[in-house]
Amino acid sequence: MVHGFWGGPGVTWFIWLLGMVIVIFVVWLLLKSLIQGSGRYYSRDKSALDILKERYAKGEIDKEKFDQRKADLLKD
Predict the structure, then answer these.
(1) Residues 60, 66, 72, 75: is their CA dihedral positive or negative?
(2) With the CA atoms of 66, 61, 52 and 75 taken in that order, what torsion angle do they form, in degrees rounded to the nearest 10?
(3) What is the pLDDT of residue 54?
(4) Dist CA 37 CA 41 (whole Å)
(5) What gap in Å lies between CA 59 and CA 66, rounded to an integer?
(6) To which H or E segment does residue 11 belong?
(7) Could you give the 3-state DSSP secondary structure of residue 61?
(8) 66: Cβ contacts below 8 Å, ≥ 6 apart
(9) pLDDT, tens only, 2-22
(10) The predicted structure's pLDDT at residue 45
(11) Cα(34)–Cα(47) distance, rounded to whole angstroms?
């Protein structure tokens, strides 16, 4: 009995393997997005002063608020 490319037993294992790789990749992408979603705006590696500087640079706070909050942070 002659099997074409799509009919051999080796192809069945290849399709199974390909399916598992795709499933694992999709699960990995979902987990990665969930983990990064919680720290999307501010990373835990940044100090409070770094975050304050970013907010000032983005224009979220003005110079007066920046200076006041910076002074509050540097008191400690």
Answers:
(1) positive
(2) 30
(3) 92
(4) 9
(5) 10
(6) helix 9-38
(7) coil
(8) 52, 55, 56
(9) 555 556 666 778 888 999 999
(10) 76
(11) 23
The Cα–Cα gap between 71 and 62 comes to 14
User: Would the pTM of this model clear 0.90, i.e. be above it?
Assistant: no
CB 34 within 8 A of CB 26: no
Q: Which residue is it, tokens 């002063």? A: 49
pLDDT digits (tens, 9 = 90+) for 11-60: 778 888 999 999 999 999 998 888 776 555 555 678 889 999 999 999 99
**36 residue type, one letter:** Q
Would you state the structure tokens that stand for residue 73, as one six-digit string? 């942070």
Residue owning tokens 């400690």: 76
- Cα separation of 23 and 7, whole Å? 23
Q: Are 52 and 70 in contact (CB under 8 A)?
A: yes
